[in-house]
């Protein structure tokens, strides 16, 4: 398929040979076409409308469909 993997940590065009442990896995940066800053991913690529489809994993989803992708429980003591 015509797909380019983009991760919020900065890798664009990554082709990992193994399943990454997280978005910060070095395998992503090592196999990427380029790596940009997190602000650039969000400002230029995502908010700029340059990404057609995105997928997020959610630690929690509330009754209003708000996603918590960071931590379950208090941030200082998850």
How is the topology of this model organized?
Layout: E1 11-12, H1 26-31, E2 34-35, H2 38-46, E3 60-61, E4 67-68
Antiparallel strand pairs: 1-2, 3-4
Short description:
The chain is an alpha+beta fold. Helices cover 19% and strands 10% of the residues.
Record keyword descriptors for this entry.
4 strands; CoA-transferase subunit beta; CoA_trans_fam_I; globular; alpha+beta; NagB/RpiA_transferase-like; two-stranded antiparallel sheet; 78 residues; single chain
Q: Can you tell me about this structure?
A:
Helix content is 19%, strand content 10%. It has 78 residues and is α+β, with helices and mostly antiparallel strands. It has one domain. The strands form 2 sheets. Strands 1-2 form a two-stranded antiparallel sheet. It has a two-stranded antiparallel sheet with strand order 3-4. The longest helix has 9 residues, at 38-46. It is globular and about 35 Å long. It starts with 10 loop residues before the first strand and ends in a 10-residue tail after the last strand. 8% of the residues are buried. The model has no long low-confidence stretch (mean pLDDT 89). One of its GO terms (molecular function) is CoA-transferase activity. InterPro entries: CoA_trans_fam_I, NagB/RpiA_transferase-like. This is CoA-transferase subunit beta. Pfam families: CoA_trans. Keywords: Transferase.
